[in-house]
Amino acid sequence: MTDTRSRRRFVLDTAAGTAAAQSDVIRIGHLTPRTGFLGPLGEYAVQAVDLAVDEINAAGGVLGRRVEALKEDSVNPQTASTKAERMIERDRVACIVGEISSASCLTIAQVAQRTRNLFINTGGNSDALRGSNCNRYMFHVESQNSMYVKTVGRALLAQNMVKGKRWYSLTADYAFGHDLLKVAKRFMEQNGGQFAADELVPTDFSDFSTMLTKIRSARPDMVVSNLAGVQITNFLKQYAEFGLTFPVAGFGFDTAVAWGAGSGNFFGTWPLVWHHLIDTPGSKRFVQAFTTRYRRPPENQAWGDYVAMKILAQSMNEIRSTEAVKLIEHWEREPKFDVLKTREGYFRKYDHQLMHEMYAVEALKPNEIKNQWDIYKPSAPTPGPNEPLDAIGSTPEENACTMST
């Protein structure tokens, strides 16, 4: 049986490599949620991929060949796995890019490892994907939960909202949320705070009235969101309607959910992997191109999928190959890439996490808002200019990765 499986894998590897080498088109698989509670974020991801592919092809493509993105709704972990396998074995994609759900990231990564294909995660935050579940065929453009927590944690420490404080947390009840709560609790323990309570919130949950009543009774020093997607939109709207005044912060965040909450319903301190107000030439070009095409600015999920496609195309051209192993070897040498920020980023060899700057944003007061998009004041980049980029990443002691091949 072992010999049979090995022969089958060799045939698949050889066929995939031959097809990729001979085709006039380089196909990239793109999987991301386009329905459900993460669907609004997935829409930005798809638009960003389309923009990136058009720009790559306008610049000459990859190795003189046109790039084509095969895009599908990942739906759930099981469906994501099935579609990833089909893209690799039937469509002969050179790489799979995308995803937002940490649970679906894991199943795609398992397919990538089994078929020796490359998977670039653009939206899954779970530390476990970079730790206990890391494998050599998976790279992460999206920041890990530790990076989000340490970024906004610095802002909360400066506001004196950690040591000796009691937090009440609401956590999305799936892999991402469980992992984020674990990281948040570690941060609180390290910095002298405690949780008054933490509630797990089902992903299809929309009525927060019972939880908001509990929060009012608990009178915490701060309410912390470990929610995801439209959960955050619904929570913010209902929190404002209840008239609660406890400070709010979040350890996971996407700008689209704040835009969806509507005027006057966004408040608190939140972390962002990227935002449309970053004043660099690359960011300005991206924002202008996206806004011209889609009549709205890009948000952080759009950034992740756009940057992933650009890094992939640049790397294939630089090493003159689309082979997964050669791309892995290239990225493990930690070359620098323009990630549309003030400093270049690189994939950390240890766990394949893209190391780059992040931001804490503070919601503007209603009378400070000038338009529907510019609704927060961003911090300076974190970490600071004199710190290494991995200062906000997890350490090997916090999140051990034994790279599985």
Structure write-up:
The chain has 405 residues and is of the alpha/beta class. The chain has two domains: 2-144 and 278-355, Rossmann fold; 146-276 and 357-392, Response regulator (Rossmann fold, 3-Layer(aba) Sandwich). 43% of the residues lie in helices and 16% in strands. The strands form four sheets. A five-stranded parallel beta sheet has the order 2-1-3-4-5, with helices on both faces. It has a four-stranded parallel beta sheet with strand order 7-6-8-9, sandwiched between helices. The chain starts with a helix and ends in a 27-residue tail after the last strand. The model is unreliable at 1-12 and 14-22 (pLDDT under 50).
Number of helices: 13
Radius of gyration: 21 Å
**Strand coverage percent:** 15-25%
CATH architecture of the largest domain: 3-Layer(aba) Sandwich
Structural class: alpha/beta
Terminal residue distance: 20 Å
The total of beta strands comes to 14
Strand order, sheet with most strands: 2-1-3-4-5
| Element-by-element helix/strand order | HEHEHEHEHEHEHEHEHEHEHHHEEEE
Give the number of domains. 2
- Helicity, in percent? 40-55%
Instruction: Estimate the mean pLDDT confidence.
Output: 93
